[in-house]
Amino acid sequence: MKPLACLALLLTLLVGCSPVAVSQPPVATALPPATTTPLPTKVPAPTFTPLPTATPTATPSPTAMPSPTATPTPIVLSYVFPVEAAWLEYGEYHHTYPATDIFCPTGSRFVAPTSGVIDFVSYEDRWNPAADDPAIRGGISVAMLGDDGVRYYGSHLSSIAEGIAVGERVHSGQLLGLTGNSGNARSTPPHVHFGISRPTTPDDWQVRRGEISPYPYLRAWQRGENLTPALP
């Protein structure tokens, strides 16, 4: 056998006897799992439940208080006997119309029986017996309108007190004049002709001289009672 043939045979035998390296696929190396950053989850926008809005408490409007009404001050009426004298006397009756003649010494004080305003004054004695004018028979005289709505009249005076004039306010017990016997009382004892009537015009001598009897009121005033005359 030729040497080349023998070599080839030998190689063949060697190959057949040696383990044949089997080529295997490369083993894939397990890579660590990739760390993936999760995509941000879309978080829904938070829903805000609105807090209940505090409803402002309505401030009540201040109740308009009514303007205080001025309450008129009540007039407290007081009465005094209209003559201040050392002595005096008077009767329950008069002659042809209601009035009272209060007899007293000349110069006694004739005072306001209550508070009021002077309504009429005669400063002079103008009575003439020949004419006998009834409007001036009272001679020196004065009348006042009381706060009680009653007119008071005194005549046959000897003088009128200083400051007494129509429209002047006087108070209870204020001096109006001094007693005498002027007018048609010249021939009679000194006295004050005292009349009570409703208010009329100052020249209304017929009403002014007297409409109701002063007697019960004079008696009450002497006792210290505040009795208001009741007009017809």
Explain the overall architecture.
This protein is of the alpha+beta class. It starts with a helix and ends in a 10-residue tail after the last helix. Helix content is 12%, strand content 21%. About 12% of the residues have low confidence. The chain contains 3 helices and 10 strands, in the order H-E-E-E-E-E-E-E-E-E-E-H-H. The chain has a domain of 140 residues: Distorted Sandwich (Glucose Permease (Domain IIA)), CATH 2.70.70. A hairpin with a 4-residue loop joins strand 6 and strand 7. Strands 1, 2, 3, 4, 5, 6, 7, 8, 9 and 10 form a 10-stranded antiparallel beta sheet that branches.
Summarize the structure.
The chain has 232 residues and is α+β, with helices and mostly antiparallel strands. Helices cover 12% and strands 21% of the residues.
